[in-house]
Amino acid sequence: MKPKFWFVLAAVAAVLALIIALVTIFSTGTGPRGYVAHTYTRAAHLDLPGDPDNRAYTSTLAPSAVARAITSKWRPQSQYTDSSGIYLRYSDDAVIIQPKAPGSVIHVMDVDHAYRRYHSHVGGSWGWSSPHGESFRGRGPGAGK
């Protein structure tokens, strides 16, 4: 066989490998939203009304086990837990994991929608609770003088 044949064969193999890599990267998504979508069972009937960005998923695992799995792959900027569920805040998305027999329901939504919806739970822990800039060093004009 001629060397030209091997170069053509190598080029075809490289193009196929590139296509497979791109499909894999873009089909699995990145971030917690993509991870949840590919790891848990979609439950569209549990989507929250009024938020087109919200997606609900279910798992047979307890909320704490689901949260451990998600946070081991994607470290949240903030995490809050109470008796109603586990609230994970990321830069663009929020993941809310709540108990639902026999396991958990997982809501993935825009972080702003999540804050408005779950303010009573996460208001003091997600860092947006201070109305007058008191949460940053110095606590605003005239403070601590």
From TrEMBL:
Pfam families assigned: DUF4247
Keywords: Lipoprotein
Highest taxon above the source species: Bacteria
Name of this chain's protein: DUF4247 domain-containing protein
Native species: Saccharopolyspora thermophila
